[in-house]
Amino acid sequence: MSDELLNLRNRIDSLDEEILARLSERATCAQRVGEIKHGNIYRPEREAQVLRRLADINPGPLPGGAVQRIFREIMSACLALEQPLKVAYLGPAGTFSESASRKHFGSAPNFLPMAAIDDVFRTVEQGNADYGVVPVENSTEGAVGGTLDLLLANPLKVCGEVKLRIHQHLLSRAEGIGGAKRLYSHAQSLAQCHEWLNRHLANLPRIPVASNAEAARLAAEDPESCAIAGEAAAELYGLNKLASNIEDDPNNSTRFLVIAHHEAGPSGKDKTSVVCSAPNRPGAMYALLEPLARHGVDMTKLQSRPARGGLWEYVFYVDLQGHQTDADVAVALKELGERAAFVKVLGSYPVAAI
């Protein structure tokens, strides 16, 4: 071993000891914060601010995203010193919803897989989980209607968002596709890979199942089948990756919302989600949106959804830039409330930091 290599390894050992000492000091500070705040030290706006700041001041050579992921795990572990968070998500284990949950909260919480989206809402509402993570829209397939309906009907608040790149893989126990007789996947994933499947597996029967993780489980039990699922499901069920990134849209991504009993404070880079309905008269929609434009509030999404209360009646889901306590957003929302037949602020929350 050269003297230079030996010196570098000794320096790395010394730095590791310094890092460990600083981590212990940080964890002690986090414990003290928990004592002062009586255990409730998770604040989504504070964590978003920390992650953004670290990316901004990162000197390299580690990329900003890597630094954020490292500190996401540090914060997750420090939070768990008091009491691990309980996070409900659309299961089973190995779904993209689980990957989104771990991306947002780190690996320290107790993750609770739920059979359906309404079970996620119910578990959080009843206090059996601190937070829930639910899909709300996909860049290819659009909005998740069930989530939108539950946001309207449920008293829980949106306190965070997660954006997850969706990479679909063709998985199987077999080493090749030659002997496959059936393909399992969730209906949305089949749609997201429609063109690839038509080119490469046009004659293979496609069987929709409840989730991609369920598809992977079935493929693990049946050597004559294959599945479309993500990396987590492949690892969980020990499947071979026969083809990678087979989604038709290379930018395919899903947006998830974090729900809880509390709202998030302003972080400096926020969104506010609102659902409203317009009176059934000419110009009503313009009247709803005009205050946003006049007060300079940027509307980033407008989604209509049939209302359950009557035939051909609709509610509108709107995402705005800014926090509801920001002066321009607050006055625009006040005027919106005066003009709309119904308004509900679903929550203000930090824009996804990672």
From TrEMBL:
Gene3D superfamilies: 3.30.70.260, Chorismate mutase (1.20.59.10), Periplasmic binding protein-like II (3.40.190.10). InterPro entries: ACT-like_dom_sf, ACT_dom, Chor_mutase/pphenate_deHydtase, Chorismate_II_sf, CM_dom_sf, CM_II_prokaryot, G/b/e-P-prot_chorismate_mutase, Preph_deHydtase. It catalyses: prephenate + H(+) = 3-phenylpyruvate + CO2 + H2O; chorismate = prephenate. The record marks T254 as: Essential for prephenate dehydratase activity. GO terms for cellular component: cytoplasm. Pathway: Amino-acid biosynthesis; L-phenylalanine biosynthesis; phenylpyruvate from prephenate: step 1/1; Metabolic intermediate biosynthesis; prephenate biosynthesis; prephenate from chorismate: step 1/1. It is found in: Cytoplasm. Its EC number is 4.2.1.51, 5.4.99.5. Keywords: Amino-acid biosynthesis, Aromatic amino acid biosynthesis, Cytoplasm, Isomerase, Lyase, Multifunctional enzyme, Phenylalanine biosynthesis. Residues 1-86 form the Chorismate mutase domain. Coiled coil: none annotated. Residues 86-261 form the Prephenate dehydratase domain. Residues 273-350 form the ACT domain. It holds the Pfam family CM_2. Its main location: cytoplasm. One of its GO terms (molecular function) is chorismate mutase activity. One of its GO terms (biological process) is L-phenylalanine biosynthetic process. PANTHER family: PREPHENATE DEHYDRATASE P PROTEIN, PREPHENATE DEHYDRATASE-RELATED. Catalyzes the Claisen rearrangement of chorismate to prephenate and the decarboxylation/dehydration of prephenate to phenylpyruvate. This is Bifunctional chorismate mutase/prephenate dehydratase. It comes from Parazoarcus communis.
